[in-house]
Amino acid sequence: LLSYYMVKAVVSTQSTGETVLSLYVAKNVTIAELLDEAKKQIELSPDGSGRLRLLEVYSYRIHRVFSNTVSYHNIQPSMAQQTTCYRVEEIPVEETQLGPKDFLIPVAHFHQTIFQCFNHPFLFKVTEEESLQSVRTRMMDRFKDISEKEFEKYKFSLITHGRMTPLNDDFTFNSSDFITNVDKDTKAINEAHLDVFLHSRPWLGLEHALKPPKRSRYTYVEKPVKIHNQ
What we know:
Blueprint: E1 4-13, E2 17-26, H1 31-39, E3 52-58, E4 61-66, E5 84-90, E6 102-111, E7 113-127, E8 130-131, H2 132-142, H3 148-151, E9 155-160, E10 163-166, E11 172-173, H4 175-178, H5 181-186, E12 203-207, E13 228-229
C-alpha cells in the first residue's frame, strides 16, 4: 500500500494573499509533483508567472528554497516544528528568467533588533553591482500597500552572522556579500539559492516600524504549519 502525507502549507499569491492549503500526497512525491497538485487548488494571478516554489520559513525568515527534483520524503525541518512552516508561492515574473549575473537574496523585516523579525519575508532579485538606489526603487513597486513616503523611512542593512551593517547610498550589491565561496564553486550564482540553508547566509534587513500586513490572513506563530505522516 502507498503511504500518504497530509501536507499543510501557507499559500501566497498576488490574487488571494495568504491562505492555508491542505494536500494528500504520496510518500515518494517530488517537490515538482507536490506543486503540480497544489496548483489545482490555487487561484493564480492572470498576469503572473504561473509557476510555484516551496520555501521553508522560520521566525519570519526564509531558511530554504527547495528545488523541484527533491523528494518531499527527504525534507526535514531545520528548526523547531512549532515555528517552522512551509510556504507555497507563485514565483514573480521577473524571477523566472535569471541572467548569469542575477541572484536572489533573502529579505526580512525587523524593528530595532535583527533577532526579532516580523511580517512577510521574501526573496528579491538583484544584479551584480546593482546600486542600492536601483534596488530601493524596484522594491518599492513590490509593496503595493505602502506609500512612497512611508517606504522612504525604511532603513536597509546587510546582516552577516548576527551583525548589522547599515547600507549607505553608494552601496552596490555583489554576490560575494551574499553567497559563500563554497556554494559558488558548485552552482551558478543564479541557482545558488536552491537547496541550501539560507539562515546561515547574509541577508538584507528592512528596518521599520512594526505594522501588521494589511492583506495577510495567516500568522505563522499563531497557526504553525505541521506536516503529519499518515
